[in-house]
Amino acid sequence: MLLKNRTLLRSNSILSLHVLVAFISLVCVTSGCGSSGGGPVQLEMVTNSIGMKFLVVPNGTLMMGSNSDNERERPKHEVTITQPYALGMHEVTEQQFTEVMGKNTKFSSPNSALDKLLWSEAVAFCKRLSDLPAEKSAGRVYRLPTEAEWENACRAGTTTKFSFGDDPTLFGQFGWYSRISGGESHPGGQKMPNSWGFYDMHGNVWEWCQNWYYDYGDVPITDPRGPETGRTRVLRGGGWFHRELDCRSASRFSEDPNSPTKYLGGMRVAFTSN
Q1: In which domain, by residue range, is 144 found?
Q2: In the chain, which end has fewer C-beta atoms inside a 10 angstrom radius, N or C?
Q3: Distance in Å from the first CA to the final CA of the chain
Q4: Which of 232, 188, 197 is nearest to 94 (CA)?
């Protein structure tokens, strides 16, 4: 009888353990247990008439900025993006710019990401690309992403310093930065993408954003576009000449958009999805 009771007790314990494991697994699947919300997501891909690839990002909410790093990034605040938008999987290359705008003597590596553009030149590229007959027929009007759209795509659902976590020693797997870049920009797709499929969001070249630079507020905001006027435009993502921590998801920089004597950036093109 004692042996029978022990056997029954053991069977019940094993059953209880199985139920507990199943419950924990269900919680992890439904609420992202042990993760920062940055699991792989399959986004719709669009390829335009000159072969540029875009991913369509759904509307949603993110925590933008950082409370623990540069003061430019404070305070961390909730941002809601109400409309889906498409964003380039890669940074615009010298060859793509040349195909749309014509030959430019300051370019020397056709497949590499641009890193010598004024903000106004980036905007002109978007307009010229929109005016291509095939793009007009498709109803695509290109533009630079807003800073919020850029950070949303970079974070890919995460709240960590980088889209791949908080460990800067992993950076070399995902982006080009000062220690490994060789002093130049590189073609897209040579490093790992983030979990949404975007390449080179960290490092390689700074990317111009649409909006003027502005100070963050501490209240939730919807579809932030920045002020109507300003002195400097925003750049995001860090560049090949920066250290790892300068290329975090929240890291932001601003510059005179039209001064050829100051910083020049690259770009990643967006359009609003219908």
Answers
A1: 45-272
A2: N
A3: 72
A4: 188
Residue 247 to residue 258: CA distance in whole angstroms: 23
On the question of pLDDT at 27 being above 90, the answer is no
Peptide bond just before 75 cis, omega within 30 deg: yes
Say yes or no: 58 and 187 in one domain. Answer: yes
The answer on 125 and 7 residing in a single domain is no
**Same domain as 131, residue 68:** yes
Stretch 200-227: mean pLDDT: 97
Question: Count of domains in the chain?
Answer: 2
Task: Note whether 13 and 148 are same-domain residues.
Answer: no
Question: Between the CA of residue 95 and those of 10, 23, 109, 113, what are the distances in Å?
Answer: 69, 53, 8, 9
* Overall pTM surpassing 0.90 (yes/no): no
Number of H helices, E strands in the chain: 5, 11
CA dist 130 and 134 (Å) reads: 9
pLDDT given at position 34? 30
Q: What is the predicted pLDDT for the residue at 40?
A: 78
DSSP state of 247: G
Q: At 133, which amino acid appears?
A: P
In a domain, 162, yes or no: yes
